């Protein structure tokens, strides 16, 4: 029983969700820092190597979005609300929202350069550039 | 007027599923239209209950260009009359075009909020924790500039800006209407701590009085408390200066969607012949991300402006 419980707990730790920030296959950079990703998704940085980047987000309360907001943006829901109120007043726009991973991949295939994030397992068989790896808390 | 306000508020509730979506995309154009409404009840105002602001924001982003305009329909009282004269009083708050030179540098022309201190980045009720603003925001430096500004991101969060104006203001600023302005500012972000330094020179259009100003601001964001403080000084060439204006403000998120605000302010204004302390105790309730109900009591140690102010504001 103890062995079963230990295996279960150990397995749970191993299966902690990994988030990868990905770009389309021709994305101008091979990797980005967390600060650069943060700036792109907060509409503070729009260009990389002179090219305008399209940032994609999941819908509100999506588990991957919650993970991204905590891990990469490092902002609480209240803090993001406050940020986007002011940002909108100053002409900034939040990332586009996709309703599924398939929709996100469709953007990756058709729009360049595009940046988004997925569960690590989702990106394995796609032609995507992994720009940053993070782990959901 | 009441019908327009009702429609806006109703549609705001309908679109509240994604709390950070503001504005409506105008089909087949890069334009986004939105705005905000303020209804303020102020015991000391001429019209005790007024729609202080109904502002329309129009923005567009195309390639390296960013366009932004803010038109304010001001001082409408509850029955749709504006100070007993006409129904609509239009003010041009902002009309600006920004061009991104590269990944980090941009140029802005038009009429825009001067990049000075914390309040000028968001000088409207819905974006702030209080209805009334500190003395410095009206009297020590110009809120708006009609000119050109160079903005540089030092790294992803920090920025430097240089602003120049040498012409008439194309808007109708109610406090400091200027025809000359030179300003620089630096804003730095260090995780939860931010600080900024601003300094400049301006000349008032009517009186031709000239003044220099400088100020430092600092803010820290804890999990449930935001502390913010600024100190500015202004030195006028004609001799009547504002030697200091400073405040410390804390906003405590004590329950979900509810904040308590305390602000202590002190200033000396030789033009108003006043040196006083202003204390403010306020309450903010935000039922939705784009909506705020506020109430605050303001106590002045010298001027007869002690009063209760309440407001309802919506951004759409």
Please describe what this structure looks like:
The complex is a heterodimer of chains A (137) and B (316). Chain A has 137 residues and is α/β, with parallel strands linked by helices. Chain A has one domain (17-135): 3-Layer(aba) Sandwich (D-Maltodextrin-Binding Protein, domain 2). Chain A is built from five helices and seven strands. Chain A has helices spanning 2-14, 34-41, 63-73, 77-89, 101-110, and strands at 18-24, 47-48, 51-52, 54-58, 96-98, 114-119, 128-135. In chain A, the strands form two sheets. In chain A, strands 5-4-6-1-7 form a five-stranded mixed beta sheet, with helices on both faces. Chain A has a two-stranded antiparallel sheet with strand order 2-3. In chain A, strand 2 and strand 3 form a beta hairpin. Chain A starts with a helix and ends with a strand. The model of chain A is unreliable at 4-14 (pLDDT under 50). Chain B is mainly beta. Chain B has one domain: Porin, CATH 2.40.160.10. Chain B has helices spanning 2-14, 135-139, and strands spanning 24-25, 31-42, 49-62, 65-77, 90-100, 105-113, 144-153, 159-165, 178-190, 193-204, 210-221, 225-236, 242-255, 258-269, 274-285, 291-300, 307-315. The chains are: A alpha/beta (137), B mainly beta (316). Chains A and B meet through helix 2, strand 2 and helix 4 of A and strand 2, strand 3 and strand 4 of B.
CATH class (first level) name of chain B: Mainly Beta
What level of helicity do the residues of chain B show? Answer: under 10%
Structural classification of chain A: alpha/beta
Query: Which oligomerization state do the chains in this entry correspond to?
Result: heterodimer
Write the SSE topology:
The complex is a heterodimer of chains A (137) and B (316).
Chain A: H1 2-14, E1 18-24, H2 34-41, E2 47-48, E3 51-52, E4 54-58, H3 63-73, H4 77-89, E5 96-98, H5 101-110, E6 114-119, E7 128-135
Parallel strand pairs in A: 4-5, 4-6
Antiparallel strand pairs in A: 1-6, 1-7, 2-3
Chain B: H1 2-14, E1 24-25, E2 31-42, E3 49-62, E4 65-77, E5 90-100, E6 105-113, H2 135-139, E7 144-153, E8 159-165, E9 178-190, E10 193-204, E11 210-221, E12 225-236, E13 242-255, E14 258-269, E15 274-285, E16 291-300, E17 307-315
